[in-house]
Amino acid sequence: MLRPVRGRLVLGMTLAGVGALFAMVPFIAVAEVGRALLSGGAVWPWAIAGAGGAVLRAFFMGASASVCHVANGHFEYGIRSRLARHLGRLPLGWFGDHGSGEVKKAVSDDIKGMHHLVSHALSDMTSAVVAPLVGIVYLLLVDWRMTLALLGFVAAVLAVVSPMLKRGYQAHMGTYNRAQAELAKATVELVDGIEVVKTYGGRARASQRFDEAVTTLTQRCLAWTAAMGRPATAMNIGLAPATMLVWILASGTAFVAAGWLPPADLLPFLAVGVGLPGPYLQVGSAANMLRQGQLGATHVDRLLGLLPLAEPAEPRRPADGRVVFDDVRFSYAPDAPPALDGVSAVLAPGTVTALVGPSGSGKTTMARLLPRFWDPDGGAITLGGVDVRDIPSRELLSRVAIVFQDVVLLRESVRDNIRLGRPDATDAEVEAAAKAARVHDVIMALPDGYDTVLGSDGGGLSGGERQRVTIARAILQDAPVVVLDEATAHADAESEAAIQEALSELAAGRTVMVIAHRLHTIAGADQILVLDSGRIVERGRHEGLLAADGLYARLWRAQNTEVKA
């Protein structure tokens, strides 16, 4: 994953290492100046070396930061581009099975975590390793016995504290990250449904899930802090400059008294040894950023490892808009009951086929298998005599126009929202599609007409008007097959009439599949398929199905009873 920027990272780490080497020079210079004053040696060379070391340290550290941040910019652009391309190749059904919070976490949160890894962690760890090594080498040259005494104290503190830190991290990091992911999903769900949440005073499921996610994350954070807090505090106290000073003075005094160490040689340990563990504490922080980056990289890598929608090795083009379901079987999971079980049907060009049935009967599944939201487990679906799996996904989607029950508009102009159906369409063609969808006059009444920027809320358009914008998009696409997912479900009577007119324009001469909940809207369909528990239990026209007095007739009577009531 880091391969494209590996060269820049190595350069940044090298510059950081050189900068860390020069960072130790001023401290060494202070110690040597003190020794020179006590012994009558030259002072100015060391003073100049200390000042030069400080300047060079600033230069190399700045250069390292610049190189690593440039590398991070290239890395983030590359990985986000890869994610966008890969997500675009996943089956459309994957996005319905997974919350948008998972995509947001990968594209935003995980890459932000890897930002610290690329921009800071690697160079910081290099500095944290090089600086103590330079200090240790210098102190060994001064007196190896005193250096071992100093290192022995540091090692003893780390030997006691490090295992506790490691256990605390391993025990809580996984649950903390899972709680973060759940909060991200719950936040997106809450924002998407904020109107409902506010209407019901916070009692909506999304609000409850958000509160639970916040509580869970807080508990995980507190548990992690409790597990890590005591050993971290003990390490900070044990390796603090004040503690190191006490140890160096105590052991140094003993060494001087025993005649093992000249008094002047104690100065390097006071100048350099006191701060020797400091970079190690930075290693802990940098290692934490490294782990965060690794966790983010694992999640991103898992997404990149998802199998994309299989593209045909030898693509074929459909002859027409004839759709055939041939003994189609499909389940959402290996151990789940079948959503479709042996479904067979023929949808002829120029006809309307309605899918009806109780909730969970398989209507939506059947409609979404046609544009390959998923691939069937058994049987085949053909378009124009060609298995849909043998049609390139871009070609297939260009031949199937879908009008969803839930309207989706992008934060773009009205013109660009309609032009999604055919990006190369002219302005005149866009306006012609809007007129056919009975929404042209509504658009012209907007502040900037077709250039008015809409949002996910429709930019002031009513629900029915927003739906007609999506119908204009489908009309512009001019696909031979149309899938309608109860496009009038949320419309009032006036809007429903306008939408029905627009749908009639869209359906003319095409193969139309309609998911119907309100049966009066499909009474004139050429073919009605009645599904129950994943099977087609009845098929025919409205009058014949009523006469058969089966499931369709019962649904019809139930709806008409409700209307009369």
Automatic annotation (TrEMBL):
- Record carries keyword Chloroplast: no
Q: Which InterPro entries match?
A: AAA+_ATPase (IPR003593), ABC1_TM_dom (IPR011527), ABC1_TM_sf (IPR036640), ABC_transporter-like_ATP-bd (IPR003439), ABC_transporter-like_CS (IPR017871), P-loop_NTPase (IPR027417), Type_1_exporter (IPR039421)
Q: Where can this protein be found?
A: Cell membrane
Task: Identify the residues that the record assigns to the ABC transmembrane type-1 domain, covering every copy.
Answer: 10-292
Protein's name in the database: Fatty acid ABC transporter ATP-binding/permease protein
Which terms are listed as keywords in the entry? ATP-binding, Membrane, Nucleotide-binding, Transmembrane, Transmembrane helix, Transport
The record's comment on protein family reads: Belongs to the ABC transporter superfamily. Lipid exporter (TC 3.A.1.106) family.
Organism for this UniProt entry: Nonomuraea turkmeniaca
The membrane topology term of the UniProt record is: Multi-pass membrane protein
**GO MF terms, alphabetically ordered:** ABC-type transporter activity; ATP binding; ATP hydrolysis activity
Q: Does Lipid biosynthesis appear among the keywords?
A: no
Span-the-membrane segments of this chain are 9-31, 43-60, 121-141, 147-165, 237-260
Looking at the UniProt record for this protein, which Gene Ontology cellular component terms does it annotate, in alphabetical order?
plasma membrane
